[in-house]
Amino acid sequence: MTEPDPLREALRAIAFRVEAARRLSPPAGKAVLGSIVEATVALFGSEAASIALYDASERKLVFTVAAGEHGQEVVGLAIDPGAGVAGYVFSTGQPLALADVARDSRFGRTTAEQTGYVPRSLVAVPLVDEEGMLGVLEVLDKRDEAAFDLRDVELATVFARQATVAIRATRIERDTASLLRSVLGTLGAEAASDGAGSSATIDVEAVVRDAIADLAGDDDGALWALADEIARLRTLDPGQIDLVRELLAVLVRRAERGRGGRSDRGR
After folding, report:
1. Which helix (H) or strand (E) holds 88?
2. Span 233-247, mean pLDDT?
């Protein structure tokens, strides 16, 4: 019988835990960012709010999520990281509030016209933390036509900070998986260069695939089904969660009564 490879087993365990963490703490993704821009629109009473994220592979700022009556048209639009107000804020790291966009040379009217909505005023703040710049949050036009001021910049920065945390958490998860694959690949290449031959080369995808397959195994299937349900419940609004709690309380009381009945019968 072949002895298990300690290195492979250790890396397999890491892959297993990465996938387990993903199930229990699902990526922030667009759902969380969407809720942030929706809350921004509600707080400001604005026509629209959006988040543009920097795509390093394309070297573009891409509008990823938006909310508001005039927000959805911008989703998917990609601009140069130095273009328009969003590009200015991204490249300088400085927040910006414009009471009249038509008078400011940094405003990209052509880009705005592509979305079908040209704002009168806006506030834009960077999504930035100690690790670097991620993107830009923009808020367009208060419905009461009041101009954006310093207080609005401060409030928008609070929402931008929450978006930054969510984005960074998602990327940590993604980068952890990428790092795992990179380490496995490097170790496999080193094994081959040491003269161990192709049989010693670590199959990167096989290790990760095997680890994830374990999560769906017959023995632990119920456990991971529960983990997936916990992850899903985390996306519910507070009212729905309260309802779930009440239902669980009823089930617990019934279970306790059932155990009590069985104990009485056993005497």
Report:
1. helix 84-92
2. 61
Query: Could you tell me the CA-to-CA distances from 188 to 28, 193, 212 in Å, in that order?
Result: 32, 9, 20
Residue carrying the six token digits 């928008």:
156
- Domain positions in the chain are 29-172, 236-266
Query: Chain-wide mean pLDDT for the chain?
Result: 75
Tracing tokens 């003269």 back to the chain, one arrives at 195
CA dihedral 66, 169, 129, 71 (to 10 degrees): 0
SS3 state of residue 219: coil
| E-only strand ranges, 1-101 | 46-55, 60-67, 78-79, 96-98
Q: Work out the average pLDDT over 201-219.
A: 58
CA distance between the termini of the chain? 52
Amino acid at the residue 64: T
- pLDDT value of residue 130: 84
Angstrom CA distances, 79 to 83, 115, 236, stand at 6, 12, 34
Q: Per DSSP, what are the bridge partners of residue 78?
A: 62
CATH topology of domain 29-172: Beta-Lactamase (3.30.450)
The one-character DSSP state at 192 is I
Contact status, residue 135 vs residue 54, Cβ threshold 8 Å: yes
| pLDDT tens sequence across 80-115 | 998 999 999 999 999 999 999 989 888 888 888 888
CA neighbours within 13 Å on the CB side: how many for 104? 17
CA dist., res. 213 & res. 231, Å (int): 19
Q: In the 8-state DSSP scheme, what is residue 117? A: -
Note the pTM of the prediction, 2 decimals. Answer: 0.59
CA distance 234 to 86: 32
Amino acid (1-letter code) at residue 120: R
pLDDT value at residue 214: 59
- Parallel, antiparallel or unpaired: strands 96-98 and 60-67: unpaired
